[in-house]
Predict the structure.
Amino acid sequence: MITLEKVRQRAESDAKTHGYYLNPDPSFLGDLLEGLKRNEERYGYPSCPCRLASGNFELDRDIVCPCDYRDPDVAEYGACYCALYVRKDLFEGKTPITPVPERRPQEKQARAFETTVEATEGPSEKPVAVGKEASQVKMKLWYCKQCGYVVFREDPPYVCPICKAKREMFAELRMQVTGY
Ligand code: SF4
């Protein structure tokens, strides 16, 4: 089993190699590392803690941390989408950390979404994650009470990718479908 310390060391080493820094807020950083650890235990690879993973490595390859979008995001915005990796000026507080727009193509987001829904409701009932049967997965709609960001996934994200609010700020959105 992967330890939180191992996840932290891996991120620190990767940040150092690329001249980046890890988020300076210890509590926020801890949440992201915990998310990576949990995703690695669940899927077998550390998929991004702020995004919906399908559980299929080929579909999720681009969002295995550090994702394909990190370097262009840090170059353009000073931080990756989750703000796990940041540039020096943001680390030192000289530049504020602001929301980073999603760079992952919409087709890929949609594919992950479809795969998870199919796995939850579809006829094949194929497993979506290591050690977890599809029939056990319950997808829910979550919204961030701080900024209104909405996401469809099994559990709320560890950190809101838009306003960086913590998981506790997410609430389940319940929708009632009525007939005409
Ligand atoms: S956005 Fe950041 S935390 Fe998420 S996968 Fe990319 S590098 Fe990792």
The radius of gyration is 17 Å.
